[in-house]
Amino acid sequence: MTASQPTDRGHLLTEQANPRSTQLDQLSSLDLVELFNHEDQRTLTAIADSKGPLAAAIDATTEALRQGGRLFYVGAGTSGRLGVLDAAECPPTFCTPPELVQGLLAGGVGALVKSSEGLEDIAADGAATIAERAVSAQDVVVGITAGGTTPYVRGALTEAQQRGATTIFMACVPADQAPIEVDIDIRLLVGPELLAGSTRLKAGTVTKMALNILSTGVMVRLGKVYGNRMVDVAVTNTKLRDRALRILCDLTDLDRDAAGTLLDRSHQQVKLALMMHLGDLDAETAAINLAQHQGQLRQALEGANRSD
Question: Exposure of 306 by Cβ count < 10 A (0-12 exposed, 13-18 middle, 19+ buried)?
């Protein structure tokens, strides 16, 4: 975990000048858009090249969360903000408790809107953040750093590893440029940025893509999705109630009014409503069936059908 840091950051892939954008300041607006669009295609290739480690990260995180663990994203600057964003989107999308997926950012909440780059250089702060959250062997810690060298992230991963947590590293440089010993090493190699060193560009885009895949993949495996519908969606406003009703109408033979009545009977729980209707069960029995199948609606329905 304490592998040596690169002595010259200029050698890092994320810091190099992109030969395709040497005339960036002379391009028309249309040419700028076309160049960005062309360069951003590299994010898709980077994700494809990392599908093995990403799948391993989904599997490891799913198992940890099934056993009562938590998922932590740790980062600084753009990388850290992306982790916080992904964590913040889990409760409304998948009705997860806020402590299940947490984003830890160098500089804390204030760094979300005000730059605090100096704080990313303090490895002890990263370690302290992990200690404050009482991270244990049940948990998963994902360190996110485009250039792979951020001391705050490395300090957090070192502390997490010493506590027995599963450690995952997500960076946009090759392993030989920023070596590290972790359980799962994800390298998202998009190449130099069009604006040299500005990793909020391709590196930020590919990181967001990877986090989308990781968190959504985990939630699918945890049974929070049925088909391609977010059946654990939190019904907390008009838009989300409308989405819940559309899910119920699409997956059952109910019209909107009947779906609304069913949703109310299920206390605004879409998955429970589906279990009640498709399994022809009352709310209490439907909840018991879901619990017996770890919240997996498809398995619970198959079990209910076999018992008929």
Answer: exposed
